[in-house]
Amino acid sequence: MPFDHPGVATISEVMQRISGRDPVIETAPFVCDANFWFPLGQPSLIFGIGDPGWGTHGANEFLPVADLIAAAKIFAGVTMAWCGVAEST
């Protein structure tokens, strides 16, 4: 998905507001489902909180509880902002 897509802006704004962190907007350094959707014309965006070095989708995958709670808040905020039921900033 282009970095200037409205979805990227919405996620960035909500993440910064809720977590206080500035999101890193970059091309993913790993393979995921988006690698298969993009060539088929499906815009894709990968978003998550935490460090991919924690073994994402590996045998010992983990996420600290505080990050899980922050992610739930951010996903809820993004959904509300995107659907127009709350301001995104």
What tags apply to this protein structure?
single chain, 89 residues, mainly alpha, DNA polymerase, domain 1, 40% helix
Helices, strands, pairings?
Blueprint: H1 6-19, H2 34-37, H3 65-82
Helix pairs in contact: 1-3
What's the short version?
The protein is an all-alpha fold and 89 residues long.
Descriptive notes:
This protein has helices spanning 6-19, 34-37, 65-82. It has 89 residues and is mostly helical. It has a single domain, classed as DNA polymerase, domain 1 (Orthogonal Bundle), CATH 1.10.150. Helix 1 (6-19) crosses helix 3. The radius of gyration is 14 Å and the shape is globular. The model has no long low-confidence stretch (mean pLDDT 85).
Helix content: 40-55%
Distance between the termini: 21 Å
Number of strands: 0
User: Which shape, going by the Cα principal axes?
Assistant: globular
| Assigned CATH class | Mainly Alpha
Per DSSP, what share of the residues sits in E-state strands of 2 or more residues?
A: under 5%
Task: Please give the CATH architecture.
Answer: Orthogonal Bundle
Main β-sheet: number of strands, strand sense, barrel status? Answer: none
Number of domains: 1
Q: How many helices does DSSP assign?
A: 3
CA-atom Rg in angstroms: 14 Å
Look at the structure and give the mean pLDDT: 85
How do the SSEs run, as a string of H and E? HHH
The residue ranges in which pLDDT falls below 50 over 5 or more consecutive positions are none
By CATH, the topology is: DNA polymerase, domain 1
Structural class given helices, strands, pairing?
A: mainly alpha
